Amino acid sequence: MGIASIVFGRIVPVLVLLVAIFLGWFATVPMAPGIFFAIMGPAFEKKLPPVLFGHGKMKGTPPVPDDMMPEPRPANEMFQILPSGDKMPSSGIGMCCRGTAYDDVLVRRSVLWYLLLGGRHIDGAHVYLNHKAIGLGIKDAIERGVPREEIFFTTKIFPNFYGYNSTLETVPKWLDETGLEYIDMVLMHAPDLPLARSECKKAGISNKQCRQDTWKALSELKEKGIMRNIGVSNFLPEQMKELQDLNLEPIANNQFQWNAFVPGEQQTIFDYCVENNISITGYYSLGGSLQKAQASTVETLQLLAEKYEVSVSKLMLRWSIQRGTAVIPGTGNPKHMKENLQVYELEISSEDIQAINELRDSEIASKFMYIDPKNWGE
Ligand SMILES: NC(=O)c1ccc[n+]([C@@H]2O[C@H](COP(=O)([O-])OP(=O)(O)OC[C@H]3O[C@@H](n4cnc5c(N)ncnc54)[C@H](OP(=O)(O)O)[C@@H]3O)[C@@H](O)[C@H]2O)c1
User: Fold this and answer.
1) Is the pLDDT of residue 185 over 90?
2) Which of 131, 182, 300, 363 lies 20 to 30 A from 109 at CA?
3) pLDDT tens digits along 213-264
4) Ligand 1, CB cutoff 6 Å, lining residues
5) Crossing angle, helix 237-244 and helix 207-223, to 10 degrees?
C-alpha cells in the first residue's frame, strides 16, 4: 500500500471522524468548553490536566502556613464604585486559564494566600469549573479572620446556559457550589458563543432576545438577593444598549480585553462604559497569559519599568488601573499576588501613561493576542 493511500484511505478518515466527534461533543455537552479549557490550560504548561488525572498532584502553589493570619489590606487601595454602591477593589485575582487554576487543591490554596495577603477581589466563572475550590478557599480565609463582607467574588454565566429558565435554574445552584450566602457579581460571560447550545438556540430565539431574557432572569435573581450586582463581559456597546433598553437593573460592569496593545476599537467599548457609568474590568492586562514574557521585551515598557524601579508586570497593571479599570491577573504564586497587590503604591506620570497609550499604534501591538469581540457572535 502506497503512502498516499495510507494517508487518504486511513489517516484522513480517522482524523475527520475524530474532529466530527469533538465538534459534536463540544456542541451538545453544555460544559464541554470548560472541560476543554481544563485540559488545554495545564497541557500548554506541560502539566497533566487534573480533570483527567486527579486533583492535588500538580505543583505550583505552596501550602499556606498553618499560623499565617490576615495581613493588612494594601495601602492606598483603589476601588471601582458600582451602581449598587458596592466597592470592587481595583486589583483582583483571576481564576482561569493558567495551569494552577485547574487543580482544585491549588485553587483553594491560592484563594487563601490571596485573601490572607490582603487581596479581596476574586474573578471566577462557571466555565472555569472551580467554584467549589474557590468557595473552600474563601471559607478557610473567613475562618482565619477575613470578613466575608470585604470579599468581592465575581462569577459568570456561560452562553450555553443563557435563556430565562436556564438562568433561573443555573445561577442559584452556585450558592451551594461555593458555600456562599450571596455572590457579589454575576456577569454574562460573552454575547454569544460559536456552537453554543442554549435553551434559546434550541427554541430558535434570536441572540438579542436571548441576552434580554437572560438579563431579565438575572435582574430577578438580584432582586431575590442571590447576587448583589450584575454585568456583562466581552459585550459591544450595541449589546449593552439592548440590556439598558429593558430598564431593568443597571449594568454594573463590563469585563473585556484591555492592555496597551489592544486595537483602538476597544477604546469605543471603554468610552461607552465610562459614559454609561459601567465599571470596567480588564483581562489580558499582562498581554495575555501566553504572552507575558513577550511584554517584558517591549522597549518602552522596559525603560519605564527601570525608571520606576518596578517590574514590567506591575507597570502594566498600574497603567490599566490609572486608565480607570480593575485588573484581575491570574496567579498561583504568592510572590506575584503580593506584587500585584502593591500596584497601588506606584504612580505613573501622565506623560508616561501617554507613552504607554501610544504602544497601541506601534508595530509591536499586532504581535499580541487579540480576540475581536465581534467574533463572539452577533
Ligand atoms: N471574561 C473573559 O472572557 C475572560 C477571558 C480571559 C480571562 N478572563 C479572566 O481574566 C483573568 C486574567 O486572565 P489573563 O489571561 O490576563 O491571565 P491569566 O491567564 O490569569 O494568567 C496570568 C499569567 O501571568 C502570570 N502572572 C501573574 N502575575 C504576575 C506577576 N506579577 N509577574 C509575573 N507573572 C505574573 C501568571 O503566572 P504565575 O501563576 O506564575 O504567577 C499567569 O501565567 C483570568 O484568570 C480570568 O479570571 C476573563
Assistant:
1) yes
2) 182
3) 999 999 999 999 999 999 999 999 999 999 999 999 999 999 999 999 999 8
4) 94-98, 100, 123, 233-234, 255, 283-286, 288-289, 292, 313, 328-333, 336, 339-340
5) 50
- Cβ atoms of 48 and 39 within 8 Å: the answer is no
DSSP H or E run through 121: strand 121-123
Closest CA to ligand 1's atom 11: 94
Looking at residue 264, its amino acid is G
On the 0-12 / 13-18 / 19+ scale of CB atoms within 10 A, 117 is: buried
Which one-letter amino acid corresponds to residue 247? N
pLDDT in tens, 115-140: 999 999 999 999 999 999 999 999 99
Expressed in angstroms and rounded, the spacing between residue 331 Cα and the centre of ligand 1 is 6
Confidence of residue 1 (pLDDT cuts 50, 70, 90): low
d(CA 100, CA 62): 11
- Report the SS3 class of residue 91: strand
Are the CB atoms for 252 and 280 separated by under 8 Å? no
Q: 187 or 6: whose pLDDT is higher?
A: 187
Q: Distance from the CA of 287 to the center of ligand 1, in angstroms?
A: 9
In this predicted structure, the answer to whether residue 14 has a pLDDT above a threshold of 90 is no
How far apart (Å, rounded) are the C-alpha atoms in residues 191 and 293? 30
The residue with cell 488601573 is 321
Nearest Cα neighbor of 259 from 371, 121, 335 is: 371
| Single-letter amino acid code for the residue at 292 | K
Torsion angle of C-alpha atoms 157, 332, 140, 168, degrees rounded to 10: 0
Residue nearest atom 48 of ligand 1, based on CA coordinates? 283
Give the number of other CB atoms < 10 A from CB of residue 242.
Answer: 18
Question: Measured from the CA of 284, which atom of ligand 1 is nearest?
Answer: 16
Whose alpha carbon is nearest atom 23 of ligand 1? 289
Which atom of ligand 1 lies closest to the CA of 100? 39
